[in-house]
Design brief:
Chains A, B: Belongs to the ROK (NagC/XylR) family. Chains A, B: Residues 28-75 form the HTH marR-type domain. Two copies of one chain form a homodimer. By secondary structure, chain A is α/β, with parallel strands linked by helices. Chain A has 13 helices and 15 strands. In chain A, the strands form four sheets. In chain A, strands 6-5-4-7-8 form a five-stranded mixed β-sheet, sandwiched between helices. Chain A has a five-stranded mixed β-sheet with strand order 11-10-9-14-15, sandwiched between helices. A three-stranded antiparallel β-sheet of chain A has the order 1-3-2. Chain A starts with 14 loop residues before the first helix and ends in a 9-residue tail after the last helix. The first copy, chain A, binds a DNA duplex (30 and 30 nucleotides) through helix 1 and helix 3.
DNA sequence: AGTAATAAGTCAAGACACTTGACTTAATGA
DNA sequence: TCATTAAGTCAAGTGTCTTGACTTATTACT
């Protein structure tokens, strides 16, 4: 049967898949629960003590976990807890935004070890690529200066930039970053760094960050509403980031709102860009964050109108996200001045009624997440860490043992 | 470490999980591609010929696949294609709607073998439970009359009813089915039938049906916009139905729309219920479908205004679903008269611009799905079939080999 | 025709990773 | 002091996939 019609099927799996999954499950358990003994791990993962012992031994040899002092709790032999070794792996995260690019190096537990930023000249990739590659190279060499074997333990480079990706161009919308979105960034970064490179939109990166070290830590269903230069939602569904067909899932900023007979994307109404426009501020100004933060802290009147208007849209966005995704919680985060995000959160409440209103909730419907200009770069770096170490369906399948898909 | 704090971790896996996954992958491949030879399966699943041979042999013994006549295509030994055996497994599907309950028996490939319906008396579960259990019992005995061993091969009972589930009650909204939604339906059905029982909302069931035998067949990312008595979206994400935290994901009917200074749920504007209200029709009328279908076919003026208004809301809903889920396609389906759905589709076009507008699309942005009063019951039945036979992450994990979670 | 090439499928041994059950170690509590 | 409890190890066992050689059956070429 050498038909030319392609046959579509999921991959099968084998021992390697089993083993890879079980390793990931151990790491995940330690990440979520903190240090655990082998016996704890065996109970939690439903594997046998022996299997856990073997895997832990291997992980320890690989420098990913290490034992702590034995704890004497009750009867029986004291248990030896194991914890993740932060220096077990590193990843570089890269944020490409309209006027600035930021890079960080993080370790296995999501601590930022090195950070640096650079202004991004106008003109898109032709002018910006070198700036970015230099920034990444700088981060890598600084990382090598503080930790041993950083290069050997570098699992990849995660990039994040505003979406959407690959859509039929709407001309030359200054809100967008079309030149970058059309540019073969993955290939360029791969060639320029020799690393495994991943790409996600900025809201997805923010969600990835919240999942590794923030409010979504250990939560299986969460939506991160991300306010930055644009606005988007990062989706954690079934414990994994959901990307959609083309990596554009969650691009709520592109949702059209109808009012006064005309339609406007949400992004034009509630986003830092809209605030800059409202305040007639040049978004390329490097002191922008401090200035906005200051205005927000002082409760400045010039910001008030925007906050109130944006809060209406955000309140509705949260209602909609709850309705469509049925998450455990919604997290409001941003690559935005913290004081501004705090004012938004205050202005948003009380929330609209939704299916999220139910008895027995343990998590609040809306929680604040990171509001930090570095959170997107952190999330970008968390991407490769997650791909390499988190338990997921794709990692069990036979075609993915070696390749980062 | 006998701490009382619960430890959260994913399950590990072992050989059984591997084997279970590979069996499912074979079945899935045959479902998507039709009959395939062992060599085809080996290539598609990346398993070895030997492994495939062993698994196919086992599936054949279990009566799930059977060989067809050898095909001579090119050089080499002729291949023997294997196909799914429809009689390999059965499931019962049950739809509970406002005024009617329907049940079907389907086989492994999703063919409906038996169907029956009954009026559902007012008063909720106290009056309706017996009707439903009798209906299911009737379907089972009829199924047993047509096929051998139907009881032995019955993998479960899937129930579908309008959501949302478990939300803090909004009083006694006649649009809802609160009494049923609060009722311990799963437990009652389990006790009353002795089967494994699953429950999903009607839009999810419709999506499950589209996935098994309809427009979403073999598609990994699809959103089914479902128009029935209410309106909802069934989400196929990463090849699986997405349920959300409480089985309420996709409940777009609960989304509030703001117009003229007041908010209205989408469901009150675009749904059969709203049409019934518009036409002042009693929704309990058994001849309803035929009547509406007739009106729609005749292009009746009384329906026109509703269709045009609903199309505006649906057009926007599709835009929103595309924006948030980034699916390969949106499928408009319904437990509604076919002529009505056709008129809606005609009235919806052209679609609003969205991120789904991209070069190189292979699937249309919007496709018609099933518009059939039985599609929800069919989808309900497809649930247990899918749980038992489709490849999915949960099926690999150690705690799920025997239990239908 | 006869033969080489090609591809499907089988056989039997091997490898790998988890499981089993007995055992060792090291605490607590009566 | 010693029974009890629990962590963790040891060594053999088991299930499932892999490997590589082999058989079978057909087409294509000379």
């Amino acid at each position: 049967m050498n038909d030319s019609r392609p046959i579509r099927a999921k991959s099968g799996t084998n021992h390697e898949g089993t083993s890879a999954h079980n390793r990931r499950v151990m790491i995940d358990a330690l990440r979520i629960n903190g240090a655990l003994s082998r016996a704890d791990l065996a109970r939690a993962t439903r594997l046998t003590k022996q299997t856990v012992s073997n895997i832990i031994e291997e992980l320890e040899r690989d420098g990913l976990v290490s034992s702590q002092e034995a704890v004497r709790g009750g009867r029986g032999q004291p248990s030896t807890p194991y914890r993740l070794v932060p220096e077990g792996a590193f990843a570089i995260g890269l944020q490409i935004d309209r006027h600035v690019t930021r890079a960080v190096a993080v370790d296995l537990v999501g601590s930022v070890l090195v950070r640096d930023e650079a202004g991004l000249p106008p003109g898109g990739p032709s002018n910006g690529t070198k700036v970015i590659l230099d920034l990444v190279a700088g981060i890598r060499s600084k990382l090598a200066g503080i930790v041993q074997q950083s290069e050997k333990r570098l699992v990849g480079l995660g990039a994040a930039m505003p979406g959407p990706f690959g859509v039929a161009g709407s001309g030359d919308d200054p809100w967008m970053m079309e030149a970058w979105q059309k540019f073969p960034l993955l290939e360029t970064l791969t060639a320029g760094t020799g690393l495994d490179v991943g790409l996600q939109n900025d809201a997805a990166a923010a969600a990835t960050a919240e999942r590794m070290v923030g409010a979504a830590h250990g939560i299986d269903h969460a939506v991160c509403l991300f306010v930055g230069y644009g606005i988007g939602a990062g989706l954690i569904l079934n414990g994994e980031l959901y990307r959609g067909t083309n990596g554009n899932a969650g691009e709520i900023g592109m949702a059209l709102l109808f009012a006064d007979g005309k339609s406007t994307p949400l992004e034009h109404r509630a986003s830092l860009a809209s605030l800059y426009q409202h305040l007639s501020i040049d978004p390329a100004d490097p002191g922008l964050y401090a200035r906005i933060n200051d205005l927000a802290l002082r409760g400045d009147q010039s910001i008030h109108a925007w906050v109130e208007a944006a809060a209406v849209d955000l309140r509705w966005s949260i209602h909609l996200l709850e309705t469509l995704f049925d998450p455990q919680t919604v997290i409001l985060c941003g690559s935005a001045p913290e004081a501004l995000v705090n004012r938004l959160i205050a202005a948003i409440g009380p929330l609209l009624p939704s299916i999220a209103e139910r008895r027995g909730r343990t998590l609040p419907r809306l929680q604040p997440g990171m509001a930090d200009p570095w959170s997107v770069a952190l999330g970008a770096a968390a991407g490769p860490i997650s791909r390499a170490f988190d338990p997921r369906f794709a990692a069990i399948l036979k075609d993915s043992f070696n390749s980062e898909a």
